[in-house]
Write a structure and sequence with these properties.
3-stranded parallel β-sheet; single chain
């Protein structure tokens, strides 16, 4: 995060990317709602006075249950979900709390009525606890046209996934790149560099992305 700031970036919430503001902006986002976001990530961002966006799986937040849809962590305590009290404190600190669906199922696999209910219920759950919910992160990183249309109908105004070029003019199709534990300083610097960002806005990225994803699971 300090590297990004040294490059002139300012941190904003996902829904604020399209609003007037600094020329160089970055939205730091967290999927799933791990309790470690509160314990480890928030103190770092507090130092920079940057907000972030956390996307909750609302059924897990209801019970603060362990997150079970990813591979087991070395420390099971790292799989705890945030509670709604945690979510309220994040919102009060200026963070955005968005939806990552109710159950983290692949939304494109659901029938229309079930898809609509999954999107509506998760948005209503977040809004009832923190006051508002306008953003969604599509589970497994999938950006599907039918799902995007359903999210728009459910009242979302911003959405993101891990597929696509950095040129989308649809705020419900904001592309992202994932940072994982294997991304050490050099790899992180490369991923967040402006040349790589420019390449992700080019037609060549579509070809590279298809090759890169072939046979690999989608993101979470």
């Amino acid at each position: 995060m300090h590297l990004l700031r040294s490059r002139g970036f300012a941190g904003v919430r996902l829904s604020d990317l399209g609003a007037p503001g600094p020329r160089h902006r970055v939205s730091v986002t967290f999927d799933d709602g791990f309790r470690t976001v509160v314990e480890y990530a928030k103190p770092v961002l507090d130092e920079l006075e940057w907000p972030a966006t956390v996307f909750l799986v609302t059924d897990a937040a209801d019970t603060a249950a362990p997150i079970t849809w990813i591979a087991p962590a070395a420390d099971e305590s790292d799989r705890r979900s945030v509670s709604w009290d945690d979510a309220r404190r994040l919102a009060e600190a200026g963070w955005e709390v968005g939806s990552h669906s109710c159950t983290h199922r692949l939304l494109s696999s659901l029938a229309d009525e079930e898809l609509a209910a999954e999107l509506r219920r998760s948005r209503e759950a977040v809004a009832s606890h923190v006051g508002t919910c306008t953003a969604i992160s599509y589970p497994w990183g999938e950006v599907d046209s039918r799902v995007v249309a359903a999210a728009r109908s459910a009242g979302y105004t911003a959405g993101s996934g891990l597929a696509g070029r950095f040129t989308s003019d649809d705020p419900l199709r904001i592309p992202r790149f994932a940072i994982g534990r294997s991304d050490r300083v050099l790899r992180f610097a490369l991923k967040t560099s402006r040349p790589v960002g420019a390449f992700r806005a080019s037609p060549g990225w579509i070809v590279v992305d298809r090759v890169r994803r072939h046979g690999r699971p989608l993101g979470v």
